[in-house]
Amino acid sequence: MDIQSEIQKIAARLLKNKEVAMVIGYGAGSAPNRTAPVFIDKEKDVGKLVFNRFCVNNLSLYLPRLKEKGKIAIVAKPCDVRTIVCLIQEKQIERDKVHIISFACPGLLEKDGKTLFASCAECAVTLPPVYDTLSGEAKEMERNEPFTDRVADFFSKMPAERWEMFKAEMEKCIRCYACRNACPMCYCEECFVERSLPRWIGEGSEVTDTMIFHIVRAIHTAGRCGECGACARACPMDVNLAPLAKQIREDMLNLFHHQAGVDPNAPAALETFKPDDYNDFIK
Amino acid sequence: MAEEVENFEPKIVAFLCNWCSYAGADLAGIGRYQYPPNVRVIRVPCSGRVDPLYILKALQNGADGVLVSGCHPGDCHYIEGNYYARRKFAVLKNLLEALGLEEGRVQFSWVSAAEGERFSQVIREVTESVKKLGPARRMVKSFEIPKEIEKEIAEA
């Protein structure tokens, strides 16, 4: 049985037995290579659930806002499950109030229907760290040929050149904040970019303001980012944030032996400390 | 350029924790330990209070260097504030340097309330290293009018 019909069957069963109040999943979009979120609370509607390789959104975005509805079932890719785990760690949702319908992920495709998304091509998580029901069989993720490392070029440069490359990326950003809005971990009711007292980020196109936004967002998601790539896919300007994400991920792993969203009982990396943490950089 | 660097007096913003480093600065004064006048001290309750945003805003507004100083690990007035700070700053420093900001623009130190002489030593070292880097350019906000707008103004 394919993943789509398995998801539909699981959703029908959960709704029929009143195990969950709602199923959040992917529905047909405005074109064959698009999907849109659907929220289903009646068994007869489960036919609206689709699964294909254009399920680009991270639906765990909706979990904290819908928690008053009761127990919710969610269709989640393995990387989305990592953000669900982070949300559980941070007490935004409760583990027993969410039913995770996950699957062995085949990776997502760009709109052309051929190329694997860059974040998917680099992904090693084809199975979710936790789940309630699992569909599909795990197999090795295929790779884009030729496989291109998005950050190798950036990190091979000297600092001044890296800064110029970073600045060029930042100049592309129009600060629409779609990346933040697509991110399940950016659940703050008031984001620092919108605060007016004090105003951290000026209006207008000043590039250092854009830099501050992206650097601080990277730090705010440090140790909490499930690397689902929803931010990159939401970006209308194709701003490449991979070097920031990669640096943070490596630091988390090397300095604090922390991987985001793997263990629901472990605290986030910046929420905890060890007395013998890395201290070499301090005088 | 060389001459500019030679006569360059950097502006350094120092966030000092109230209980250790600020008291250490006080002791340096009482003990008459000399240190360069390049630092602008901002007193904060704890090094853990220093948000990465403060550091970035200081750089954006033209600071040539930023120093954050707190109590030694284990000595925090709030028991563990500096431990959290240490993790946060490790990530921030590595990220800024990975993006290409000069190493040494942002520095960190532990100075206790009893280390007046050490405080003056730290300030000397930080000032020296920032002086070597030259004036900050990369993160600083530009107040220049963009060329296309300048042209529009001229035509109007």
Structure commentary:
The complex is a heterodimer of chains A (283) and B (156). The model of chain A has no long low-confidence stretch (mean pLDDT 90). Chain A has a five-stranded mixed β-sheet with strand order 2-1-3-4-5, covered by helices on one side. Chain A starts with a helix and ends in a 27-residue tail after the last helix. Chain A is α/β, with parallel strands linked by helices. Chain A folds into two domains: 3-135, no CATH class; 152-271, no CATH class. Chain A has helices at residues 3-16, 78-89, 118-121, 152-155, 159-172, 178-182, 207-220, 230-234, 242-256; strands spanning 22-28, 35-40, 72-75, 98-103, 133-135. Chain A is globular, with a radius of gyration of 20 Å. The longest helix of chain A has 15 residues, at 242-256. Chain B is α/β, with parallel strands linked by helices and 156 residues long. Chain B has one domain (2-155): Rossmann fold (3-Layer(aba) Sandwich), CATH 3.40.50. In chain B, 45% of the residues lie in helices and 15% in strands. Chain B contains six helices and four strands. In chain B, helix 4 (81-99) links the parallel strand 3 and strand 4. The longest helix of chain B has 19 residues, at 81-99. Chain B is globular and about 65 Å long. In chain B, 49% of the residues are buried. Classes of the chains: A alpha/beta (283), B alpha/beta (156).
